[in-house]
Design goal:
mainly alpha
Amino acid sequence: DPHSDNRWSAAWALGNIGAAAECATLPLCATLRDPDEKVRWYSAWALSRIASPVEGVVAALSTALNDIDDDVRGYAVIALGKLGPFAHPALGALAQMADDENPAIKSAVSEALTAIST
């Protein structure tokens, strides 16, 4: 859809559905690369609510850890943490964020590292 409002609204709706929207995981992974930061933010948020261990989700969320927007990075961290041990391939990228200047992200990284490592 050429209108970013429609794209972020769709991501928001899918996030509100939660785990039942598992079939939307890969399309949401694709929108993590959207040029509009609000679309990326809602996509990362939705993935943190759906938390589906689908092939490709860890790689997409790991890439989102480098987003310029704190909210996108923060929700990518939370989503990885909710995936638990399935997100093990992201441990290195998460560990590099342990000193993030944003205290909320720093805290989320600590929680995610614990959740993934157990």
